[in-house]
């Protein structure tokens, strides 16, 4: 504020300040234009790697393998499997029928049977499917002494330490012998644990009848035992019409409590990246993206060298660094995916008689999609850096910055109460209500209650006394009290900001006005619009305005009040805001507010 006061006393010439403002406007417009081109390029790149056919391919595959019921038993499909008997019925029914498409619907043979099956006549089955089982050893848990006479065996939950690595059953083929993993595929994160690669593995035959006999033999020889904890069914298909691979994994988990929990993964990915002319256009966008990344990185390095530690005091600079980091990670993931596809794809397509493990490539492709999605999210957030010069956006940013301390204090109080209710719900309803089965589920369930999505009947049935008490008190304290306190904090601060802006404390320039003025200057330069007259000739003086007000019927008291208000506002603008320095918020003093009130009451 002291520097601002010195400036008002003549520290810099108007011509110099005007020049600095013009430079700032020009620099901002140049940065905005460059970033706008970068953002368009990034949008084209991200939407280019996503194909609308991905959803439809996942949909038809999931409908075939998840919703198709066992013939004669409409209730049994993969989603509804609850016992080992249901599992074998699915394997011999919907799975076999879905994997082997030997002929057209009128039994006409369309292609050589030695070739792979064509699911839905359009999707080529790559290689052969694979079935993999993981088990746990006996005595991985302890039976209480009083029950040892009734039960001597104990199979605990799956962990890598409890996994059974020994051969079992017939011990003649790979399905009875433990096989270590020879792939780099990530471990599978299921409902009940994290499962590593390897296990008891067998691949299906290209013949439907041989595969069915294989299933019958495994069932008769008890391939699934009490120690079984998970079975994976993996296969991949390729649709040449849309140039998409669909990598499918069906998972059946066998919890220690008994029963079966099913889950699934359908990944439609574009592993053959550059085929059509549009794909090569996307490749050019990727090269342009790398050029932009180099330019932005160079700019930020220069800023860090120039401003040093002061550079890290701006939240926009931290956002810039985060965006650059995400861009580098995205480029690294993309490069790694392309290298792995180049090295592995040809080799996988040659092994038509073996299982083709595309799961590794699909996972890395999904990782790349996720990181590029996060990158473009923060790229859009950065737009606020440029539109913060707008009056409305500046008001919003000022509101958030001024009430951040109050929000932090409120958040501490809010989450203390919120987590207390979450733990109460987990302990009381966790054993009976799915929404509260874990502490994490309890937290998400309470957020859903705030949004109006809740299962009150389930809570009440789990505990007729504590259920309604929990629900009513949670709604009262969290929804009616705490959330309204949060809104009151925001509303009160916003009112202060609007009052501050009403007396002249506002952005030095607004982006909309900058663009509009530049547009007018271009029109005037090309003589498409007449140049406006000078400010002195265009506007009327205060005396002319007073005379006009008298002619329009305003009395002398109203005219004097208006003139006093104008002088008071100009004095406050000179004191609290300068075009050179935008210092921190300074509240209006009581004396100044009293003077303002006198102007209104005179």
UniProtKB/TrEMBL annotation:
Residues 533-556 are annotated as: Disordered. Disulfide bonds join 141-154. GO terms for molecular function: calcium channel activity; calcium ion binding. Keywords: Coiled coil, Glycoprotein, Ion channel, Ion transport, Membrane, Transmembrane, Transmembrane helix, Transport. InterPro entries: PKD1_2_channel, PKD_2, Polycystin, Polycystin_dom. The chain crosses the membrane at residues 32-51, 277-297, 318-346, 366-387, 407-429, 469-490. Residues 77-272 form the Polycystin domain. It is a multi-pass membrane protein. One of its GO terms (cellular component) is membrane. Pfam families: PKD_channel, Polycystin_dom. Residues 273-497 form the Polycystin cation channel PKD1/PKD2 domain. GO terms for biological process: detection of mechanical stimulus. It is found in: Membrane. Exhibits a lower single conductance but no spontaneous channel activity. May function as a regulator of calcium channels or a channel component involving Ca2(+) homeostasis. Belongs to the polycystin family. Interacts with TRPC1 and TRPC5. This is Polycystin-2-like protein 2. It comes from Colobus angolensis palliatus.
